[in-house]
Design a protein that fits this description.
39% of the residues lie in helices and 14% in strands. By secondary structure, the protein is of the alpha+beta class. It folds into 2 domains: 16-123, Phosphorylase Kinase, domain 1 (2-Layer Sandwich); 136-358, Aminoglycoside phosphotransferase (APH), C-terminal lobe (Aminoglycoside 3'-phosphotransferase, Chain: A, domain 2), CATH 3.90.1200.10. Helix 5 packs antiparallel against helix 8, helix 5 (206-217) runs parallel beside helix 9 and helix 8 packs antiparallel against helix 9 (350-358). It is globular.
Length: 362
């Protein structure tokens, strides 16, 4: 197979120079002497929210900020809605009720007028992120080149984040509003509504449709009590210092539900990159974030043993497929690729997900 190339994955059509002036004007409403000295986007990880890195000064001091805002509706956003106030609230709640490291939240701006969309502002935390483009397990990344001991330190410390988060007091505002008698039912209903939005904006996926049918046929016999979920629990959404979490980022998928959802997501997010690496004939990182190791550490730290992980990992793969369907449509929108005759060709995890549904993957 040909050598993998980093794909062009444009996220936004917004003009950074215009955004810089508009944000500077807004910031001067907070501090009259504020000046924005630099503003740039970041594309190392993530495919959903629009993130700006800002350097500013006020009060005779320099400040390093992060602005999280919803994408423009014309830029083929991954999700149908972006509740930035909800994200702001969960970050603050995590900071208040746990020792999970999160950035300091500064301001929430629900008014779309200043930047064209609601946004919130956080302090920037120093650290490094395992890259998504190219995936960290393809080689030539700080994590791939780390020692086994360093990789294990990062793995265990990341699992510890989940165990600590799942002990957090229940937050009712994170309950999903979708119909369903249980938190898991509501979670899957929410995902189905998300898929319907994506399919309506492009084309339906026969494989994803099969995936929802599979979930119904393999529904867990017993559903655990719901906890607060990070939602997008993968190492690409953490900043690390010395192989330990310095800040947990990207809370737009936060919800309540079985803790298995977070545990399976962490495991599958790495499996997904491993499957892609192997498709290119690359060795990957087969001894990293293995299910048995993640579960052993989680049980040790939480006292709870996750169950029926095949179901939850398959559900994770299904959600990843929806992301790929939407980001593929975004590439078509920006002229980076043609829409294939078989829409399932947009799904980077097509072959592994097919094997999951056929019972030959795990």
């Amino acid at each position: 197979m040909t050598e993998p190339q980093a794909p062009e994955m444009r996220r936004s059509s917004r003009d950074p120079a215009v955004q810089r002036e508009r944000f500077a004007s807004w910031l001067r409403g907070k501090h009259a002497d504020a000046e924005v000295t630099a503003l740039e986007g970041t594309s190392a990880t993530g495919m959903s929210s629009d993130t700006l890195l800002v350097d500013a000064t006020w009060g005779g001091q320099s400040h390093r900020l992060v602005v999280r805002r919803a994408p423009d509706a014309d830029d083929v956003p991954v999700f149908p809605t972006y509740d930035l106030t909800r994200q702001f609230r969960i970050i603050r709640a995590v900071a208040e009720h746990t020792d999970v490291p999160v950035p300091a939240t500064l301001w929430n701006e629900p008014d779309a007028e200043p930047l064209g969309t609601p946004f919130f502002v956080m302090s920037r935390v120093d650290g490094i992120v395992p890259p998504d483009v190219m995936p960290y397990d393809f080689g030539d990344s700080w994590l791939f080149d780390a020692s086994e001991e360093q990789q294990r330190t990062l793995q265990d410390a990341t699992v510890d984040v989940l165990a600590r988060l799942h002990r957090m007091p229940y937050q009712e505002f994170l309950e999903l509003p979708d119909a369903g008698a249980t938190a898991l039912r509501r979670h899957v209903a929410h995902t189905r509504a998300w898929y319907d939005f994506v399919a309506a904006g492009g084309a339906p996926s026969p494989l994803i449709e099969r995936g929802f049918a599979w979930l119904e046929q393999h529904w867990p016999a017993a559903e655990p009590e719901p906890v607060v979920l990070w939602g997008d629990a993968r190492i690409g959404n953490l900043l690390y210092q010395d192989f330990r979490p310095a800040a947990v980022l990207d809370w737009e998928m936060a919800a309540t539900g079985p803790r298995e959802l977070d545990v399976a997501w962490l495991i599958y997010a790495h499996r997904n990159f491993e499957d892609i690496a192997h498709a290119f004939g690359l060795p990957g990182m087969p001894d990293f974030l293995r299910r048995e190791d993640v579960l052993a550490r989680y049980v040790e730290q939480s006292g709870y043993e996750p169950r029926e992980l095949d179901f939850y990992e398959t559900y994770s793969a299904l959600q990843f497929a929806i992301v790929y369907l939407r980001t593929g449509a975004r590439q078509v929108h920006f002229g980076e690729r043609e829409l294939p005759a078989d829409v399932d060709e947009l799904l980077y995890n097509r072959e592994p997900l097919t094997r999951m549904l056929e019972g030959t993957y795990f």
